[in-house]
């Protein structure tokens, strides 16, 4: 396919905006502008393609394209604007799936047009496989994050089965390329096999690892886009796709590093398996008992403290308690208590999730403390209030080599004078492992819904 | 094999771009603070929505009589647009909150 000079020029500009945009997204001050620049480049590329396309296109096809873009824009805008900020990780997964599906559909249509061109067929089949896996995998990740598919589902020997399936898919695709077949039946067989693989690939992975999986599938979709760039000799598809493919891969590794895990461990490790072993077979048993406390006790404790640190986790997001905790913070500050939030890098369902959530409630930037900065401060802290967080404060990461989270950097809340843990129940956290912090003599448990408990705390402290 | 060599010679420019872009992608991410991982992922997610260009090209190049191709292309354009618009808007919404904290 050849493009007019104007279109090539537009594609060049668009490619530069993607590079610039991604670069600026990496710095807090420029991030928002970077996103807008990339969005501008994208708009330019889309309009340019519509205007400068060489070749006769019937008017009704233009109308159809316009209608599709209109539908996509309106629904995309509404979904992205209306969905609650706590639902954000699912949303990224959902949109990623859409991109993957789009790439797979393109391949399905183009297959018939390239019969006999082996390399083109290879590119097309590659796009179909990667796009489909990215689509169905993202849908499963989406389901897992919104709680529909909370439990990891594992067939016996699932790693072996999965690897056989993907090898089978590759072999089948290789056969299709080699034989130069134009069979639509084979094409759809491959398509459905790839969709199935996406499902069985993500299903066994625990919900806590979904951010890593989404990031990986994100780079897959980039790769699928790049493949269609190759097919059409289209530079903007090629550059945009490759850029996301490689940046996404690096980001995936960075996320794994923040959790002190390897990618192989995340994808094939079977997090839950290891933890159940360590629960049953570990020499490291948890002594002591759980102490309960009441709202009024905690209210008194906080009211007469000098320093209080809040440790928010996903439970806070689920309970929509971010506004309540901000109110509690302001109330305590007005009573002369110094309040901070300790943010673990992977608290919540995605790195940075808690920062975004708390920023939404206008919490002062200076009050959000990062893990390395806040850890030495715990020993001078009177009360640590853990709200809906679990694994990020689990001392097993330091003490228990058999624990699946061993080695993960944690918030060392056990150094504080008193630890109050708010949870809905004794259910283990997302990683599915026991937390000895709850059995620590310094720790008291305050069971209940985070929002309700915090609101009760507020009215209790107000009446003092 | 000859096909592969032929392809590479004919598309040497694309092969160069492919390789250089991989390095650009790696360099760009470099040392991004963990706080920005989510917005960055979301922004990258929006950028691979560039696949919509492919979907548009498919529709424009399709035989107007081929209803199946047009229907699939139509869906592909909708999905691609969702990816682009949704991706950029969500990223902007996330970053909007970062800005407020100053």
Counted by DSSP, the helix tally of chain A is 18
**pLDDT average of chain A, as an integer?**
86
**Helix-strand pattern of chain A, N to C?**
HHHHHHHHHHHHEHHEHEHEHEEH
Could you give the count of β-strands of chain A? 6
Report the biggest beta sheet of chain A as strand number plus sense, adding barrel if it closes.
6 strands, parallel
Q: Mind telling me the C-alpha Rg of chain B?
A: 19 Å
Q: Strand pairing plus helix content of chain B: what structural class?
A: mainly alpha
- Please state the structural category of chain A: alpha/beta
Number of domains of chain B: 2
Chain-averaged pLDDT of chain B: 87
Helix content of chain B: over 70%
Beta-strand percent range of chain A: 5-15%
Q: What assembly state would you assign to the polypeptide chains in this entry? A: heterodimer
Question: Quick one: how many beta strands of chain B?
Answer: 0
Largest interface, Cβ cutoff 8 Å: A-B, 116 and 82 residues
| Shape designation of chain A | elongated
CA gyration radius of chain A, whole angstroms: 26 Å
Describe what you observe in this structure.
The complex is a heterodimer of chains A (464) and B (102). Chain A is an alpha/beta fold and 464 residues long. In chain A, 60% of the residues lie in helices and 7% in strands. In chain A, helix 5 packs antiparallel against helix 8 and helix 6 (158-179) packs antiparallel against helix 7. The longest helix of chain A has 28 residues, at 118-145. Chain A starts with a helix and ends with a helix. With 102 residues, chain B is mostly helical. Chain B has two domains: 1-30; 32-102. Chain B has five helices and no strands. In chain B, helix 3 runs antiparallel to helix 5 (67-100) and helix 4 (51-61) runs antiparallel to helix 5. The radius of gyration of chain B is 19 Å and the shape is flat.
């Amino acid at each position: 396919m050849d493009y007019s000079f104007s279109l090539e020029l537009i594609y060049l500009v668009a490619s530069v905006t993607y590079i610039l945009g991604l670069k600026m997204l990496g710095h807090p001050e420029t991030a928002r502008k970077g996103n807008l620049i990339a969005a501008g480049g994208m708009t330019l590329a889309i309009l340019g393609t519509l205007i400068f396309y060489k070749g006769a296109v019937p008017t009704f096809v233009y109308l159809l394209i316009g209608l599709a873009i209109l539908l996509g824009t309106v629904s995309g805008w509404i979904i992205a604007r209306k969905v609650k900020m706590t639902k954000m990780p699912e949303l990224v997964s959902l949109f990623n799936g859409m991109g993957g599906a789009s790439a797979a559909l393109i391949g399905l249509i183009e297959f018939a047009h390239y019969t006999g061109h082996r390399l083109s067929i290879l590119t097309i089949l590659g796009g179909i496989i990667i796009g489909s896996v990215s689509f169905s995998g993202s849908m499963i990740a989406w389901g897992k994050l919104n709680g529909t598919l909370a439990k990891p589902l594992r067939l016996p020997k699932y790693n072996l089965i999965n690897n056989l399936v993907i090898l089978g898919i590759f072999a089948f695709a290789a056969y299709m390329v080699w034989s130069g077949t134009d069979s639509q039946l084979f094409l759809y067989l491959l398509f459905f096999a790839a969709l199935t693989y996406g499902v069985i690939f993500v299903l066994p992975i625990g919900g806590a690892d979904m951010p890593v999986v989404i990031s990986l599938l994100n780079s897959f979709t980039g790769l699928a886009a790049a493949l269609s760039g190759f097919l059409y000799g289209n530079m903007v598809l090629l550059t945009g796709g490759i850029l996301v493919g490689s940046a996404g891969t690096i980001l995936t590794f960075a996320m794994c590093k923040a959790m002190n895990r390897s990618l192989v461990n995340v994808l094939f490790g079977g997090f839950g398996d290891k933890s159940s072993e360590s629960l049953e077979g570990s020499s490291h048993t948890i002594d002591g008992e759980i102490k309960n406390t009441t709202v009024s006790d905690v209210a008194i404790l906080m009211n007469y403290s000098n320093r209080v640190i809040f440790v928010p986790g996903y439970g806070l997001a689920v309970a929509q308690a971010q506004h309540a905790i901000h109110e509690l913070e302001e109330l305590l500050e007005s009573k002369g208590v110094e309040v901070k939030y300790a943010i673990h890098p992977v608290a919540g369902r995605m790195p940075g999730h808690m920062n975004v959530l708390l920023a939404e409630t206008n919490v002062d930037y200076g009050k959000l403390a990062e893990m390395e900065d806040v850890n030495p401060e715990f020993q001078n802290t009177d009360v640590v209030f853990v709200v809906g967080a679990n694994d990020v404060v689990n001392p097993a990461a330091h003490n228990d080599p058999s624990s699946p989270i061993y080695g993960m950097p944690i918030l060392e809340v056990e150094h504080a004078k008193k630890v109050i843990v708010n949870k809905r129940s004794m259910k283990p956290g997302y990683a599915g492992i026991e937390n000895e912090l709850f059995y620590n003599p310094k720790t008291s448990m305050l069971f209940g819904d985070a929002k309700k408990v915090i609101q009760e705390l507020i009215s209790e402290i107000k009446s003092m | 094999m000859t096909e592969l060599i032929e392809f590479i010679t004919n598309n040497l420019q694309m092969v160069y771009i492919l390789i250089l872009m991989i390095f650009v992608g790696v360099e760009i991410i470099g040392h991004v603070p963990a706080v920005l991982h989510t917005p960055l992922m979301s922004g990258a997610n929006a950028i691979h929505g560039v696949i919509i260009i492919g979907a548009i090209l498919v529709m424009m190049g399709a035989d107007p009589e081929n209803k199946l191709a047009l229907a699939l292309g139509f869906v592909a354009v909708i999905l691609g647009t969702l990816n682009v618009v949704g991706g950029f808007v969500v990223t902007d919404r996330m970053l909007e909150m970062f800005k407020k904290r100053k």
